[in-house]
Each structure stands twice: as C-alpha cells, then as structure tokens.
Design goal:
This protein is of the alpha/beta class and 420 residues long. It has 14 helices and 15 strands. The chain folds into two domains: 171 residues, no CATH class; 219 residues, Rossmann fold. It has an eight-stranded mixed β-sheet with strand order 12-11-10-9-13-14-1-15. It starts with 5 loop residues before the first strand and ends in a 15-residue tail after the last strand.
Length: 420
C-alpha cells in the first residue's frame, strides 16, 4: 500500500476580518435603532444558537451591554431546536461551552423547551415559539448567515432559520422538518418565519458573516421590517466567500474531525460533496469525491457525531468518542437518517486505508488522488498527493509549502499528524 508522496498546501482566502468586533456591534446596532419604540425597563429576549461562530461570546456580550446601556433588561435564551440533546440543561451547557454564561454575559439565561402556539402559517404549519421569548417585550436574534448544508436557495441558514427551528425549540424542529419532506426546508423556513414575524414580538436581529478564514467579516443589524430581503442579500454576499477544496476530483478525502461546532451536518456536505440523505456528489461545484475517510470528532462537538454516516469508512476511535443520544436525537429530529448510519470502521488508520483503497477504482495505490483536511470548516492548510501538483500549481490562491513526504504511521498503525 504505497501511495503517491504528499505535498502540503496553504490556501489563501481574502480577509475581511473586523478588528474591533465589540465596537462594531455597538455601531451597527446604533445605526439600525432596533426597538426604538420601546421604553427603558423593557425586557428583551436575545436568541443565541449552537454553532461554533468566531467571537460569539464577544458579540453576544456586546449585544447585552448595548441593551443595558439603553436602560433595558435583556436575557439570553438558547435558540437551537433539538441541540444539547433536546434538553433545557443541555442547551444551557452548549452556550457555556462557547463562554456564554450568566456570569460572563452579565444577564440571566432562561432555558426551557416550553413553547406557545402562534397559529398556522400560510402553508398550514402549526407554528410555535419559545415561551420565555414570547413573554418578553421584544425578541432579538443573533445568528450567522451562511449557506445551508442540505439545500440551495435564496434564503438558507440565518435569522429566518433561527426564527423557525431555533425559536420553535424541540417541538417546532420536529414538526418543521417533517413538513420539509414535502414542502422543502427553504419553503418551510420562509412560511414559519413570516408567521413568527406576525406575532409582533420580533425586533430584528444581528446577522454575522464570516469570511473564508472563519473570521468575523461583517455584522449587520437587521430591522424587523427588512429581515427577509436583507438576509437574502447577505447570503448572496457570503456565498462568494465560501471556501472549497481546490481540485476537481479526489479518489479519497481524509477528514480529521467532524463536529456540530463546525457544521450543522458535522461535515459540510457542500465541501465534501455528499448529501445528508446518502447521495454521492450532488453538488456541481467543488471536487468529485469518491470516498470519505473520517478520523475523529472535534472536542467542541462533545460527542455529537451527526453526519458521520456521510463517510464511507471511519476510524474506530470515533465510535468510542461518539455519544449516541445527542447524535441520534439530532439526526432523527432533522430527518437525516442516512447521516447517522454507522460506516465501516477499523482500529487504526493503516487498516482503514488498506481495507478500502481499492473501492475508489484504482488498481495501484500510487495512482490514487488523495486530499487530507482538518475539517470542513478549515480549508487553509491541506495535504494532497503529488499527482495533484499540476492542478494546484497554476492556482494563485494555493501555495505549496512542503512536498515529497510519504504517509507515516506510528507503532499503533495511526497516521503521524501533518496538519497541526
């Protein structure tokens, strides 16, 4: 099993990094005048999700401070559907893992799965909303706007999705994903989001955009009157920053880590070219990937391995790291059953590769075109087999920084790390 030697490549993405994130939060909120009609003393519910967003603790803390400076009484609530194993305590713990606690934020955190009914949307969907949020004088959302991992549209992941899946808690998440099987998730998100807006509680939101380096690149305070149109515009922009693997075809893609902090699907299907429903190479952009080998779970995923079923083979340690309850709850709630099926697995890297390399259609392992990434969010440092050099060298955004290295295995048969 002698593969082509590997080279190490660094991919460069345009940087739009905001130097003063806290200051930018205050500036953009002032310009939007969210809740200008409210009087001092009003109670403001701030919804926060469960993704690994850069600077999320700084951003949320600045939102809280801005409302307090205006004489309001803000509190935070988890807006995250079934995450945190679909429990109030678990969702509070998710926020704490990102540094968001009552002590660090200087305000209460009210976590509950209780919801109130908001009636039926125009599509006939019974719509619900977090009871704590509904009891407030106004609700503000804090969410990252980006492409959704499971579908392509003009409104994907962001404030509207948080109004639906996030504010709907576990009850809403189950219901809306069921409707998505027949209506499509984008249509459900729009329909439910509009119904939530009709309740009159939503003030607007802070949209967070990240560049290809996973840095905070833009903060947009979006008033309730323009949420739908403004979010579509922001999505169009951030899609132009989407990182991709810079080759056309890989026989094997090695992925070090899966994680809910990295992607809602654990691994971004639009990066690895998979569907959460089991389809191979459904996306026309990015490389065609014949086989995905997954090696472990990111520590910030805390055992949630949803999406590992998109891999063809996984390292045996992943099954030891995986916690079944959050993984299964997340996969079942979203209806992505294929993403939680257990793939073939062996006890070390050498065995995983030895048992499966022939399935990519090559008779000689040296002919395999292999890529190696840390995770689907970080595509800055990657390894590729030398037989991809001719494709990489003309790319002005890719720099080859080391070459001629054989895959090395330790005494246990595991790969010696190169992407540190």
């Amino acid at each position: 099993m002698r593969f082509s030697p590997f080279l190490l490549a660094r991919q460069k993405f345009p940087s739009y990094r905001i130097a003063d994130v806290e200051g930018e939060v205050h500036r953009t909120l002032e310009s939007a005048r969210l809740g200008a009609e409210l009087k001092p003393g009003a109670v403001i519910a701030i919804g926060v999700g469960s993704r690994g967003i850069a600077n999320i603790d700084t951003i949320v803390g600045a939102i809280v401070a801005w409302w307090q400076k205006r004489g309001m009484h803000p509190f935070l609530f988890p807006a995250m559907g079934s995450h945190g194993a679909a429990s109030a305590k678990g969702q509070t713990e998710v926020l704490a893992k990102y540094g968001i606690t009552e002590a660090t934020m200087g305000c209460p955190i009210r976590s509950s799965l209780d919801v109130v009914s908001l009636g039926q949307s125009s599509e006939g969907i019974d719509t619900v909303m977090d009871r704590n949020a509904y009891s407030a004088d106004g609700v503000m959302l804090c969410a990252r706007v980006k492409w959704h991992t499971d579908f392509a549209g003009t409104l994907e992941s962001g404030l509207f999705k948080m109004m639906a899946i996030g504010l709907g808690k576990f009850e809403g998440a189950k219901r809306y994903h069921t409707f998505a099987h027949t209506l499509g998730l984008e249509r459900v998100i729009r329909s439910v989001g509009r119904q939530v807006l009709s309740c009159g509680k939503i003030l607007g939101g802070l949209a967070i955009l990240e560049d290809g380096n996973h840095d905070t690149a833009r903060l947009a305070a979006v008033h309730v009157d323009e949420m739908e149109q403004r979010e579509m515009e922001l999505l169009t922009l951030v899609k132009t920053w989407m990182p991709r693997i810079p080759v056309e075809h890989l026989h094997f893609l090695l992925v070090d880590q899966i994680g809910k902090n990295l992607s809602g699907s654990g691994m971004d299907p639009k990066v690895i070219n998979r569907s959460v429903h089991g389809a191979y190479n459904p996306w026309t952009f990015g490389p065609r990937v014949d086989r995905v080998y997954l090696r472990g779970i990111h520590p910030m995923s805390y055992g949630n391995a949803v999406g590992f079923g998109m891999a063809d083979v996984v390292h045996g340690r992943l099954l030891k790291q995986m916690k079944r309850k959050p993984t299964w709850v997340n996969g079942i709630t979203s209806g992505t059953m294929a993403s939680i099926k257990t793939p073939a697995h062996y006890g070390n890297d050498r065995r995983c590769l030895a048992e499966t390399w022939r399935t990519a259609g090559c008779h000689d392992p040296a002919d395999l075109k292999i890529g190696w990434i840390r995770n689907s969010q970080d595509l800055s440092l990657m390894a590729f087999t030398e037989n991809l050099r001719a494709e990489l060298e003309p790319n002005a955004d890719v720099e080859i920084i080391a070459a001629g290295r054989e895959l090395e295995f330790d005494e246990a048969g595991d790969l010696r790390e190169w992407l540190a």
